[in-house]
Amino acid sequence: MARLIPQPLYKKIVEVIPIPCIDVAARYKGKLLLLKRKDKPLKDQWCFPGGRIHKNESFKEAAKRKLNEETNLNFKFIKLFGPYETMFPDALFGVKTGTHTINTLALVEVSDIHHLKLDKSHSESKLFSKIDKNWHPYVRKALKDCNFFK
Predict the structure, then answer these.
(1) Interatomic CA distance for residues 150 and 148, integer angstroms
(2) pLDDT class for 95, splitting at 50, 70, 90?
(3) How confident is the model over 35-68, as pLDDT tens digits?
(4) I need a labelling partner for 46 at 20 to 30 A (CA). Which of 5, 107, 133, 140 fits?
């Protein structure tokens, strides 16, 4: 199990380098599961479950960990997409340089959402049947790239 980076050190890291992240496009009965974020960046917006990849963790392992941490769900892996890059003017911890991430998208299939339980960083979850023009451009592009809504 990877150890968490202490917050003061993680703040310094976010200030100076891009963060490698995994995002999870979870399909359930043809619909997309998105979560509404409570924190910066993208506070109060619908986003993929996901986050930082730990050292010595594969993309698939990171996707499994993040989806489980954020939703209590498991999945069947389908395919990876990316890389993508996001840059946000805001960040956690009051970082003045914003947030810069390098993202890989894991397309997965979820067979059961009855045990869905959100973590403390999300306010709600929702299943979507099409791309919304109000979503962040990265979310829209990644979904188009993986042909999510065939």
Answers:
(1) 6
(2) confident
(3) 999 998 999 999 999 999 999 999 999 999 999 9
(4) 5
Q: Residue 70 and residue 118: Cα distance in Å, rounded? A: 6
Q: Which CATH superfamily is domain 7-145 in?
A: Nucleoside Triphosphate Pyrophosphohydrolase (3.90.79.10)
| Cα gap 42→27, rounded to integer Å | 22
Q: Looking at the chain, how many residues does it have?
A: 150
Domain boundaries, the chain: 7-145
Half-sphere exposure of residue 148: CA atoms within 13 angstroms, side-chain side = 30
**Per-residue pLDDT tens digits for 124-146:** 999 999 999 999 999 999 999 99
Q: Whose CA is closest to 146, among 118, 111, 109, 101?
A: 109
Q: Which residues of 63-83 are buried (b: 16+ CB within 10 A; e: fewer)?
A: bbbbbeebbebebeeeeebbe
